Amino acid sequence: MDVEVRVRGWMMDPNTNMPIVVLKDVTSDAVMPIWVGIYEVNAIAVEINKEVGPRPMTHDLARNLIQNLNAHLDRVVITELRDDTFYAVLWLTQNGEVVTVDARPSDAIALALRADCPIYVSEQVLAAARLTPPSSMEGPSNEDLRKWLEGLNDEDLGRYKM
């Protein structure tokens, strides 16, 4: 079963100084962090902030290709967490046929925001990831991290809130 989530915002991890995209379950207070790279969070932040550049960015190009190929992005699903790496799938419909495409979660999220389609996380990934930071991360315990993420408010997210 997949759980619908929304991008709650993004912030910098105070321990690793890496960007974290914070996803929130739409039906509960559960949150799930995904550590991403600087370029990846920039692609997400550009869409969150509704910034428009002089030329299409890669994710704008992907959205335009999907539309111009008479396809529709129905949903994205973060399907797996293996060896501290998340995996995602784009679910598209083209000419009445379902097409799935492997994607990095950061790309899937950036594209979902541009296409205004729902984002889902498999229950297994949500259960594992909301409590497990990357193994390379030192610092607070899983419980401390969970409490910190679930307790975020708009001021904590600052200019990065949704």
Characterise this structure.
Strand 2 and strand 3 (31-35) form a beta hairpin. This protein is globular. Helices cover 33% and strands 35% of the residues. With 162 residues, the chain is of the alpha+beta class. The protein has one domain: Bifunctional nuclease domain. It has a 7-stranded mixed beta sheet with strand order 3-2-1-7-4-5-6, sandwiched between helices. Helix 1 runs parallel beside helix 3 and helix 2 (58-68) crosses helix 3. It contains 6 helices and 7 strands.
SSE layout and pairing:
Blueprint: E1 2-12, E2 19-25, E3 31-35, H1 38-48, H2 58-68, E4 71-82, E5 85-94, E6 97-103, H3 105-115, E7 119-122, H4 123-129, H5 142-150, H6 154-157
Parallel strand pairs: 4-7
Antiparallel strand pairs: 1-2, 1-7, 2-3, 4-5, 5-6
Helix pairs in contact: 1-3, 2-3
Protein name: Bifunctional nuclease family protein
Domain BFN: 2-133
TL;DR?
The chain is an alpha+beta fold. About 35% of the residues lie in helices and about 35% in strands. A seven-stranded mixed β-sheet has the order 3-2-1-7-4-5-6, with helices on both faces.
Query: Could you report the average pLDDT, rounded to the nearest whole number?
Result: 85
Q: Calculate the terminal CA-CA distance, rounded to whole Å.
A: 26 Å
**Architecture, CATH level 2?**
Roll
Order of helices and strands: EEEHHEEEHEHHH
CATH class identity: Alpha Beta
Question: Which parts are unreliable, with pLDDT below 50 for 5 consecutive residues or more?
Answer: 131-140, 158-162
CATH topology: Bifunctional nuclease domain
Radius of gyration, Cα only, in angstroms? 16 Å
Q: How many domain modules? A: 1
Number of helices: 6
Q: Look at the structure and name the CATH superfamily.
A: Bifunctional nuclease domain
The backbone outline, from C-alpha atoms, is: globular
Structural class: alpha+beta
Strand ordering within the main sheet: 3-2-1-7-4-5-6
The beta-strand count equals: 7
Estimated share of beta-strand residues: 25-35%
Largest sheet: 7 strands, mixed
The percentage helix is: 25-40%
Oligomer: single chain
InterPro entries: BFN_sf, Bi_nuclease_dom
Domain BFN: 2-133
Protein name: Bifunctional nuclease family protein
